[in-house]
Amino acid sequence: MNDFEMNPQEMVDTIMKKIKEARDSMTRFNLVILGKTGVGKSTLINNIFSEPIADVGIGKPVTSQIRQYERDGYPLRVFDTPGLELSGDNAVDQLLADIRETVSAGLRSGRPEDAIHCIWYCVSASSHRFEDAEKAFITKLSEEIECRLPIIVVLTQSFSKNDAQTLKSVIEKENLPVTQVVPILAGDYEIDEEYVAKAYGLDRLIDVTYGVIPDAVKNTLAAIQKVNVRMKQKKAHVIVATSAAAAAATGAIPIPFSDAALLVPEQIGMLASITAAFGLPVEKSVITAVVSSTIGSAGATVLGKSIVAGIFKLIPGAGSVVGGAISGSVAAAITAALGEAYTGILTLICTGEMKSEELETEKGRKLIRKMFRDKLKLKRGSDGEPEIKASGKKASGKAPGKKK
Question: pTM of whole model > 0.90?
Protein backbone atom coordinates (compact mmCIF):
# COMPACT_ATOMS: atom_id res chain seq x y z
CA MET A 1 0.00 0.00 0.00
CA ASN A 2 1.52 3.33 -1.07
CA ASP A 3 1.36 6.66 0.79
CA PHE A 4 -1.84 7.69 -0.96
CA GLU A 5 -3.72 4.39 -0.51
CA MET A 6 -4.29 4.32 3.21
CA ASN A 7 -7.27 3.12 5.17
CA PRO A 8 -9.09 5.42 7.62
CA GLN A 9 -7.14 4.21 10.66
CA GLU A 10 -3.82 4.85 8.93
CA MET A 11 -5.07 8.31 8.05
CA VAL A 12 -5.95 8.99 11.67
CA ASP A 13 -2.50 7.87 12.80
CA THR A 14 -0.87 10.11 10.19
CA ILE A 15 -3.01 13.09 11.20
CA MET A 16 -2.14 12.62 14.89
CA LYS A 17 1.56 12.46 13.99
CA LYS A 18 1.31 15.67 11.98
CA ILE A 19 -0.63 17.41 14.78
CA LYS A 20 2.27 16.69 17.12
CA GLU A 21 4.76 17.93 14.54
CA ALA A 22 2.77 21.15 14.07
CA ARG A 23 2.62 21.78 17.82
CA ASP A 24 6.29 20.98 18.34
CA SER A 25 7.22 23.45 15.60
CA MET A 26 5.52 26.39 17.36
CA THR A 27 7.84 29.10 18.63
CA ARG A 28 7.42 29.56 22.37
CA PHE A 29 5.69 32.78 23.44
CA ASN A 30 7.51 34.52 26.32
CA LEU A 31 5.59 36.98 28.47
CA VAL A 32 6.70 39.18 31.38
CA ILE A 33 3.85 40.02 33.75
CA LEU A 34 4.33 42.73 36.39
CA GLY A 35 2.15 44.20 39.09
CA LYS A 36 1.70 44.61 42.80
CA THR A 37 0.73 41.76 45.08
CA GLY A 38 -2.99 41.03 44.91
CA VAL A 39 -3.75 42.53 41.50
CA GLY A 40 -4.84 39.13 40.15
CA LYS A 41 -1.94 38.14 37.91
CA SER A 42 -2.36 34.40 38.48
CA THR A 43 -6.10 34.61 37.85
CA LEU A 44 -5.43 36.48 34.62
CA ILE A 45 -2.87 33.97 33.36
CA ASN A 46 -4.96 30.91 34.22
CA ASN A 47 -8.12 32.34 32.66
CA ILE A 48 -6.55 33.47 29.41
CA PHE A 49 -4.37 30.49 28.45
CA SER A 50 -5.46 26.90 27.87
CA GLU A 51 -2.95 25.48 30.36
CA PRO A 52 -2.86 26.68 34.01
CA ILE A 53 0.72 27.94 34.01
CA ALA A 54 0.36 29.76 37.33
CA ASP A 55 -0.51 26.48 39.06
CA VAL A 56 2.82 24.79 38.42
CA GLY A 57 4.23 25.67 41.83
CA ILE A 58 6.66 28.31 42.99
CA GLY A 59 8.38 28.52 39.63
CA LYS A 60 12.04 28.47 38.72
CA PRO A 61 14.12 31.40 40.05
CA VAL A 62 15.57 33.48 37.21
CA THR A 63 16.87 36.44 39.20
CA SER A 64 16.52 37.58 42.78
CA GLN A 65 13.00 38.90 42.07
CA ILE A 66 11.78 37.12 38.95
CA ARG A 67 10.47 33.59 38.57
CA GLN A 68 9.83 31.59 35.42
CA TYR A 69 6.72 29.43 34.92
CA GLU A 70 6.21 26.90 32.14
CA ARG A 71 4.89 23.42 31.38
CA ASP A 72 6.68 20.70 29.42
CA GLY A 73 5.47 20.55 25.85
CA TYR A 74 3.47 23.79 26.10
CA PRO A 75 4.83 26.77 24.11
CA LEU A 76 4.39 29.43 26.79
CA ARG A 77 6.84 30.82 29.33
CA VAL A 78 5.74 33.42 31.88
CA PHE A 79 8.19 35.58 33.85
CA ASP A 80 6.56 36.90 36.98
CA THR A 81 7.51 39.10 39.94
CA PRO A 82 5.87 37.41 42.96
CA GLY A 83 5.36 40.83 44.55
CA LEU A 84 6.11 44.14 42.89
CA GLU A 85 6.94 46.55 45.69
CA LEU A 86 7.90 50.01 44.51
CA SER A 87 9.02 51.44 47.83
CA GLY A 88 12.58 52.77 47.84
CA ASP A 89 14.96 53.53 45.00
CA ASN A 90 17.12 50.50 45.75
CA ALA A 91 14.19 48.10 45.37
CA VAL A 92 13.11 49.71 42.10
CA ASP A 93 16.62 49.80 40.68
CA GLN A 94 17.20 46.15 41.54
CA LEU A 95 13.92 45.07 39.95
CA LEU A 96 14.67 47.06 36.80
CA ALA A 97 18.13 45.48 36.65
CA ASP A 98 16.58 42.02 36.96
CA ILE A 99 14.11 42.70 34.16
CA ARG A 100 16.85 44.14 31.97
CA GLU A 101 18.98 41.04 32.52
CA THR A 102 16.05 38.73 31.72
CA VAL A 103 15.40 40.57 28.45
CA SER A 104 19.10 40.71 27.59
CA ALA A 105 19.58 37.00 28.20
CA GLY A 106 16.85 36.24 25.70
CA LEU A 107 18.37 38.54 23.12
CA ARG A 108 21.85 37.07 23.59
CA SER A 109 20.62 33.59 22.74
CA GLY A 110 19.65 34.77 19.25
CA ARG A 111 16.68 32.38 19.23
CA PRO A 112 13.07 33.64 18.88
CA GLU A 113 11.87 31.06 21.41
CA ASP A 114 14.09 32.62 24.10
CA ALA A 115 13.37 36.30 23.48
CA ILE A 116 10.84 38.21 25.58
CA HIS A 117 7.94 39.17 23.32
CA CYS A 118 5.67 41.35 25.44
CA ILE A 119 5.17 42.88 28.91
CA TRP A 120 1.85 43.11 30.73
CA TYR A 121 1.84 45.63 33.57
CA CYS A 122 -1.16 44.95 35.82
CA VAL A 123 -2.96 47.62 37.84
CA SER A 124 -6.02 46.84 39.95
CA ALA A 125 -8.90 49.01 38.76
CA SER A 126 -10.68 48.39 42.06
CA SER A 127 -8.07 50.55 43.79
CA HIS A 128 -9.21 53.53 41.68
CA ARG A 129 -5.60 54.75 41.75
CA PHE A 130 -2.57 54.90 39.52
CA GLU A 131 0.33 55.83 41.76
CA ASP A 132 3.21 58.14 40.86
CA ALA A 133 5.59 55.28 41.67
CA GLU A 134 3.95 53.11 39.02
CA LYS A 135 4.12 55.89 36.46
CA ALA A 136 7.83 56.37 37.19
CA PHE A 137 8.48 52.62 37.08
CA ILE A 138 6.86 52.14 33.65
CA THR A 139 8.81 55.11 32.27
CA LYS A 140 12.10 53.75 33.61
CA LEU A 141 11.23 50.26 32.42
CA SER A 142 10.79 51.48 28.86
CA GLU A 143 14.11 53.31 29.04
CA GLU A 144 16.06 50.48 30.66
CA ILE A 145 15.30 47.53 28.37
CA GLU A 146 17.61 47.11 25.39
CA CYS A 147 14.86 46.79 22.80
CA ARG A 148 11.52 48.56 22.61
CA LEU A 149 9.35 45.76 23.93
CA PRO A 150 5.62 46.43 23.80
CA ILE A 151 4.21 47.25 27.25
CA ILE A 152 0.47 46.84 27.78
CA VAL A 153 -1.18 48.19 30.92
CA VAL A 154 -3.85 45.72 32.05
CA LEU A 155 -6.52 47.06 34.39
CA THR A 156 -7.39 43.92 36.33
CA GLN A 157 -10.33 43.50 38.71
CA SER A 158 -12.42 45.95 36.67
CA PHE A 159 -15.68 45.14 38.45
CA SER A 160 -17.21 48.45 37.41
CA LYS A 161 -16.78 49.22 33.72
CA ASN A 162 -17.42 52.90 34.33
CA ASP A 163 -14.76 53.13 37.04
CA ALA A 164 -12.32 51.19 34.85
CA GLN A 165 -12.88 53.57 31.94
CA THR A 166 -12.27 56.53 34.24
CA LEU A 167 -8.96 55.07 35.44
CA LYS A 168 -8.06 54.17 31.85
CA SER A 169 -8.51 57.82 30.85
CA VAL A 170 -6.35 58.98 33.76
CA ILE A 171 -3.50 56.66 32.73
CA GLU A 172 -3.78 57.55 29.04
CA LYS A 173 -3.42 61.26 29.88
CA GLU A 174 0.01 60.49 31.33
CA ASN A 175 1.27 59.73 27.79
CA LEU A 176 3.33 56.81 29.00
CA PRO A 177 5.39 54.68 26.57
CA VAL A 178 2.78 51.90 26.50
CA THR A 179 0.89 50.29 23.66
CA GLN A 180 -2.59 50.47 25.19
CA VAL A 181 -4.51 50.39 28.46
CA VAL A 182 -6.93 47.45 28.52
CA PRO A 183 -9.59 47.00 31.26
CA ILE A 184 -10.45 43.37 32.01
CA LEU A 185 -12.34 41.21 34.46
CA ALA A 186 -10.65 37.83 34.28
CA GLY A 187 -13.57 35.79 35.63
CA ASP A 188 -17.21 36.11 36.59
CA TYR A 189 -17.48 37.85 39.96
CA GLU A 190 -20.49 37.54 42.25
CA ILE A 191 -21.29 40.94 43.74
CA ASP A 192 -24.17 39.59 45.77
CA GLU A 193 -26.77 36.87 45.42
CA GLU A 194 -28.67 38.89 42.85
CA TYR A 195 -25.87 40.19 40.62
CA VAL A 196 -22.83 38.65 38.96
CA ALA A 197 -20.32 40.81 37.08
CA LYS A 198 -19.49 38.88 33.90
CA ALA A 199 -15.90 38.45 32.75
CA TYR A 200 -14.89 40.68 29.87
CA GLY A 201 -11.92 42.19 28.08
CA LEU A 202 -9.72 39.11 27.80
CA ASP A 203 -10.37 38.74 24.08
CA ARG A 204 -9.49 42.41 23.63
CA LEU A 205 -6.23 41.93 25.53
CA ILE A 206 -5.32 39.05 23.22
CA ASP A 207 -6.17 41.16 20.16
CA VAL A 208 -3.93 44.00 21.36
CA THR A 209 -1.10 41.64 22.26
CA TYR A 210 -1.35 39.81 18.94
CA GLY A 211 -1.01 43.11 17.11
CA VAL A 212 2.33 44.05 18.69
CA ILE A 213 4.24 40.77 19.03
CA PRO A 214 6.64 39.39 16.38
CA ASP A 215 5.19 37.36 13.52
CA ALA A 216 7.15 34.33 14.70
CA VAL A 217 4.89 33.91 17.74
CA LYS A 218 1.52 35.10 16.41
CA ASN A 219 0.34 31.58 15.55
CA THR A 220 1.50 30.38 18.94
CA LEU A 221 -0.49 33.02 20.81
CA ALA A 222 -3.59 32.32 18.72
CA ALA A 223 -3.34 28.62 19.59
CA ILE A 224 -2.55 28.78 23.32
CA GLN A 225 -5.08 31.47 24.28
CA LYS A 226 -8.60 30.26 24.98
CA VAL A 227 -10.65 33.47 25.14
CA ASN A 228 -10.68 34.63 21.52
CA VAL A 229 -12.32 31.89 19.48
CA ARG A 230 -12.75 34.27 16.55
CA MET A 231 -8.96 34.46 16.23
CA LYS A 232 -8.71 30.67 16.08
CA GLN A 233 -11.47 30.50 13.47
CA LYS A 234 -9.75 33.11 11.35
CA LYS A 235 -6.53 31.08 11.39
CA ALA A 236 -8.47 27.95 10.48
CA HIS A 237 -10.24 29.66 7.57
CA VAL A 238 -6.88 30.70 6.12
CA ILE A 239 -5.64 27.11 6.40
CA VAL A 240 -8.79 25.80 4.69
CA ALA A 241 -8.57 28.35 1.87
CA THR A 242 -4.91 27.52 1.27
CA SER A 243 -5.62 23.77 1.25
CA ALA A 244 -8.62 24.16 -1.05
CA ALA A 245 -6.49 26.18 -3.48
CA ALA A 246 -3.83 23.45 -3.42
CA ALA A 247 -6.50 20.81 -4.04
CA ALA A 248 -7.83 22.87 -6.96
CA ALA A 249 -4.34 23.03 -8.41
CA THR A 250 -4.05 19.26 -8.08
CA GLY A 251 -7.29 18.95 -10.04
CA ALA A 252 -6.43 21.65 -12.58
CA ILE A 253 -5.96 18.78 -14.98
CA PRO A 254 -9.00 16.66 -13.98
CA ILE A 255 -8.03 13.72 -11.79
CA PRO A 256 -9.42 10.30 -12.75
CA PHE A 257 -11.66 8.95 -10.02
CA SER A 258 -9.18 6.12 -9.51
CA ASP A 259 -6.50 8.69 -8.61
CA ALA A 260 -8.62 10.67 -6.13
CA ALA A 261 -6.29 9.60 -3.33
CA LEU A 262 -3.80 12.17 -4.63
CA LEU A 263 -5.77 14.62 -2.48
CA VAL A 264 -4.99 12.70 0.70
CA PRO A 265 -1.74 14.46 1.76
CA GLU A 266 -3.26 17.94 1.38
CA GLN A 267 -6.36 17.08 3.41
CA ILE A 268 -4.40 15.29 6.11
CA GLY A 269 -2.12 18.31 6.48
CA MET A 270 -5.14 20.61 6.60
CA LEU A 271 -6.84 18.73 9.45
CA ALA A 272 -3.58 18.63 11.42
CA SER A 273 -2.95 22.35 10.91
CA ILE A 274 -6.50 23.29 11.96
CA THR A 275 -6.15 21.21 15.12
CA ALA A 276 -2.86 22.92 15.98
CA ALA A 277 -4.38 26.35 15.27
CA PHE A 278 -7.15 25.72 17.81
CA GLY A 279 -4.64 24.53 20.39
CA LEU A 280 -7.06 21.99 21.83
CA PRO A 281 -5.87 18.68 23.30
CA VAL A 282 -7.72 16.70 20.63
CA GLU A 283 -7.69 12.98 21.27
CA LYS A 284 -7.26 10.32 18.62
CA SER A 285 -10.91 9.35 19.08
CA VAL A 286 -12.03 12.79 17.86
CA ILE A 287 -10.02 12.50 14.64
CA THR A 288 -11.30 8.95 14.20
CA ALA A 289 -14.89 10.17 14.53
CA VAL A 290 -14.34 12.93 11.96
CA VAL A 291 -12.72 10.62 9.43
CA SER A 292 -15.15 7.74 9.88
CA SER A 293 -18.19 10.02 9.83
CA THR A 294 -17.25 11.37 6.42
CA ILE A 295 -17.32 7.88 4.88
CA GLY A 296 -20.00 7.38 2.26
CA SER A 297 -22.52 4.58 2.28
CA ALA A 298 -20.38 2.72 -0.23
CA GLY A 299 -17.52 2.65 2.26
CA ALA A 300 -15.50 5.36 0.57
CA THR A 301 -13.81 8.03 2.65
CA VAL A 302 -13.54 11.61 1.44
CA LEU A 303 -9.80 11.22 1.92
CA GLY A 304 -9.50 7.92 0.14
CA LYS A 305 -9.17 6.39 -3.30
CA SER A 306 -12.92 5.97 -3.91
CA ILE A 307 -13.70 9.55 -2.90
CA VAL A 308 -16.38 10.18 -5.51
CA ALA A 309 -18.54 7.13 -4.84
CA GLY A 310 -19.35 8.39 -1.35
CA ILE A 311 -19.20 12.16 -1.75
CA PHE A 312 -21.08 12.60 -5.00
CA LYS A 313 -24.10 10.98 -3.40
CA LEU A 314 -24.17 14.05 -1.14
CA ILE A 315 -24.28 16.36 -4.17
CA PRO A 316 -27.44 15.70 -6.21
CA GLY A 317 -26.90 16.29 -9.92
CA ALA A 318 -23.11 16.27 -9.71
CA GLY A 319 -22.92 13.62 -12.40
CA SER A 320 -22.06 10.02 -12.87
CA VAL A 321 -19.29 8.44 -10.81
CA VAL A 322 -18.27 6.15 -13.65
CA GLY A 323 -15.74 7.05 -16.29
CA GLY A 324 -15.35 10.65 -15.23
CA ALA A 325 -12.81 12.81 -13.44
CA ILE A 326 -12.55 15.18 -10.50
CA SER A 327 -12.16 18.78 -11.58
CA GLY A 328 -10.29 21.45 -9.67
CA SER A 329 -13.55 22.96 -8.42
CA VAL A 330 -14.79 19.66 -6.99
CA ALA A 331 -11.43 18.91 -5.37
CA ALA A 332 -11.44 22.40 -3.82
CA ALA A 333 -15.07 22.17 -2.70
CA ILE A 334 -14.67 18.81 -1.00
CA THR A 335 -11.48 19.93 0.73
CA ALA A 336 -13.06 23.21 1.84
CA ALA A 337 -16.20 21.47 3.09
CA LEU A 338 -14.16 19.01 5.13
CA GLY A 339 -12.02 21.80 6.60
CA GLU A 340 -14.91 24.12 7.42
CA ALA A 341 -16.94 21.31 8.98
CA TYR A 342 -13.97 20.34 11.15
CA THR A 343 -13.48 23.99 12.11
CA GLY A 344 -17.12 24.10 13.17
CA ILE A 345 -16.70 20.99 15.33
CA LEU A 346 -13.62 22.39 17.07
CA THR A 347 -15.43 25.69 17.62
CA LEU A 348 -18.22 23.87 19.46
CA ILE A 349 -15.66 22.10 21.62
CA CYS A 350 -13.70 25.31 22.24
CA THR A 351 -16.81 27.23 23.35
CA GLY A 352 -17.98 24.42 25.61
CA GLU A 353 -21.10 23.70 23.55
CA MET A 354 -19.91 20.15 22.97
CA LYS A 355 -17.54 17.77 24.70
CA SER A 356 -15.00 15.99 22.52
CA GLU A 357 -16.16 12.58 23.75
CA GLU A 358 -19.65 13.29 22.38
CA LEU A 359 -18.26 12.95 18.87
CA GLU A 360 -17.79 9.24 19.50
CA THR A 361 -21.54 8.76 19.95
CA GLU A 362 -23.97 8.22 17.10
CA LYS A 363 -25.44 11.66 17.77
CA GLY A 364 -22.01 13.21 17.41
CA ARG A 365 -21.27 11.34 14.21
CA LYS A 366 -24.57 12.46 12.73
CA LEU A 367 -23.67 16.04 13.57
CA ILE A 368 -20.32 15.69 11.79
CA ARG A 369 -22.01 14.27 8.70
CA LYS A 370 -24.63 17.03 8.74
CA MET A 371 -22.04 19.79 9.08
CA PHE A 372 -20.08 18.32 6.18
CA ARG A 373 -23.18 18.05 3.99
CA ASP A 374 -24.20 21.60 4.86
CA LYS A 375 -20.83 22.88 3.63
CA LEU A 376 -21.30 21.22 0.24
CA LYS A 377 -23.73 23.15 -1.95
CA LEU A 378 -24.59 22.87 -5.58
CA LYS A 379 -25.62 25.59 -8.01
CA ARG A 380 -25.75 25.88 -11.77
CA GLY A 381 -23.61 28.12 -13.92
CA SER A 382 -24.75 30.18 -16.87
CA ASP A 383 -24.21 27.21 -19.18
CA GLY A 384 -26.35 24.93 -17.06
CA GLU A 385 -23.43 22.91 -15.74
CA PRO A 386 -23.50 22.16 -11.99
CA GLU A 387 -20.95 24.13 -10.00
CA ILE A 388 -19.68 23.30 -6.53
CA LYS A 389 -19.25 25.84 -3.80
CA ALA A 390 -18.25 25.32 -0.18
CA SER A 391 -18.74 27.56 2.85
CA GLY A 392 -20.83 29.95 0.83
CA LYS A 393 -18.00 30.75 -1.58
CA LYS A 394 -18.09 29.75 -5.20
CA ALA A 395 -15.21 27.57 -6.25
CA SER A 396 -13.68 28.00 -9.68
CA GLY A 397 -14.40 25.49 -12.42
CA LYS A 398 -17.21 23.02 -12.88
CA ALA A 399 -18.23 19.76 -11.37
CA PRO A 400 -18.24 16.73 -13.68
CA GLY A 401 -21.62 15.72 -15.02
CA LYS A 402 -23.84 15.70 -18.01
CA LYS A 403 -25.39 18.82 -19.38
CA LYS A 404 -29.08 19.00 -19.01
Answer: no
